[in-house]
Design a protein that fits this description.
By secondary structure, the chain is α+β, with helices and mostly antiparallel strands. 50% of the residues lie in helices and 14% in strands. The two termini are 64 Å apart.
Length: 419
């Protein structure tokens, strides 16, 4: 049973019970035979009204209990309470009447079918079952942070009474993550982990929030990630966390080793390769190791004749004379095009605040699909003041032509202003 169904089941059962009670009250009198109209003594009519008020009070008590237990949202609770109060007023006024309609089997059938159908229709129009899950409501504008926090507190109170409800506690942990209360999220994940011993995904999520709570992966978060790796040595999130912990401790070779194992599982052409390779080479450089020139991934099929490999790499810098023309958050695009021009074969994106910096097109997804890489290419870089890669007046540019697509050690300088 999914978490969403587990969450909705108590509400669905409670609603079905209330509808059933209503039908039990309404149908038996309607199935009895009788005249079309009958005079009812005033004292008998008052007794009937009193009985109805007792039933309404019981329904109100049930409604209060559902709301207090967190199985009914505030809006539904208020609508239902207002309806019960209105019915109570109607019953009080009915005591003065001495003329009532007789039962009818036709109306009994209509009520038996109509009440559940109408109840379902009204809930589908006015209700919101998905709203019971904080993951579904976190981004909805009609709930402010205080309302979401109130819902999460209600869920927490309920979970204290249901310690073995794994799905509920998992939802509570995710809810605390939405609220960025990482201490409570970590405690909720720890509660679930005591009952679920062999789930690496759960352990990785737990390690992640512990790292956010402690502002460091090295320590408790690393130990939890290692537990996940014992269950699944290839678990990518746990391996990433373990590598980050090694990096934070200054074990750069260990960090690179963890991340290289992830890289070896990434399919060729995946966009994550470039950023992952950048992190690996950063760790290898700090650890005194040579950089990787290509991702440690399964070899791609042999290239067609003339297609070649695009692995152009080097260092990008900004001319000192133009330093006062850029801001740290200006967007920098680096393109590779065929020597004859045309659409870019591949592109990288940085910010001006990162310059000077190394770059590499190894493993970068090709923008031109499977089209061949020409034997000579042009490398260009642009500080796009407007943020538009197509360029405009005031942009700063640099360019080098006639390069082989696998050239390394290129030194490209942005030294021109576009008119």
């Amino acid at each position: 049973m999914s978490a969403e169904l587990s969450t909705l089941l108590p509400f669905i059962v409670g609603a079905a019970v209330l509808v059933g009670v209503a039908l039990l009250l309404l149908l038996p009198p309607l199935f009895r035979s009788g005249r079309k109209q009958a005079a009812v003594p005033a004292d008998a009519d008052a007794g009937q009204a009193e009985t109805a008020l007792v039933v309404l009070r019981e329904q109100l008590a049930d409604l209060e209990a559902e709301h207090a237990a967190g199985r009914m949202d505030e809006a539904t609770y208020r609508r239902s309470r207002d309806e019960l109060e209105r019915r109570a007023l109607d019953e009080g006024e009915a005591g003065a009447s001495t003329l009532v309609a007789a039962p009818s089997r036709y109306w009994a059938v209509v009520v038996a079918i109509g009440v559940p159908v109408m109840a379902a229709a009204v809930y589908l129009i006015l209700g919101n079952p998905a709203g019971l899950d904080p993951r579904q409501i976190a981004g909805e504008q009609q709930f402010d942070p205080q309302q979401i926090a109130g819902m999460v507190n209600t869920l927490a109170e309920r979970m204290e009474k249901e310690p073995d409800n794994v799905e509920g506690w998992s939802m509570l942990a995710r809810s605390y993550v939405v609220l960025e209360d990482y201490a409570k999220a970590a405690a909720a994940y720890a509660h679930v982990a005591e009952r679920v011993k062999d789930d690496p995904d759960l352990l990785a999520d737990w390690a992640d929030v512990v790292a956010a709570r402690d502002r460091s992966v090295a320590g408790e978060a690393e130990q939890i990630a290692k537990r996940a790796l014992e269950l699944d040595p290839g678990h990518p999130k746990s391996r990433l966390l373990a590598g980050t912990a090694s990096y934070q401790r200054g074990d750069y070779a260990g960090a690179s080793a963890h991340w290289e194992r992830i890289l070896a599982t990434v399919p060729p052409g995946d966009p994550v390769i470039a950023s992952l390779l950048e992190g690996i080479n950063d760790a290898r450089a700090k650890g005194g190791l040579p950089p990787l020139s290509a991702p440690a991934a399964p070899a791609a099929p042999a290239a067609a004749a003339g297609q070649g490999e695009l692995s152009l790499s080097g260092r990008l810098a900004l001319a000192p004379a133009l330093a006062d023309k850029v801001k740290a958050d200006d967007v920098v695009f680096v393109f590779v095009r065929g020597e004859a021009g045309g659409a870019p074969l591949a592109a990288l994106r940085f910010t001006a605040g990162e310059l000077p910096r190394d770059f590499s097109f190894s493993g970068v997804p090709r923008m031109a699909g499977d089209s061949p890489v020409p034997p000579k290419v042009t490398l260009a870089a642009r500080v796009a003041k407007s943020g538009n890669p197509s360029g405009g007046p005031g942009d700063l540019e640099g360019r080098m032509a006639g390069l082989a697509p696998d050239t390394t050690g290129v030194a490209l300088v942005i030294d021109q202003m576009r008119e």
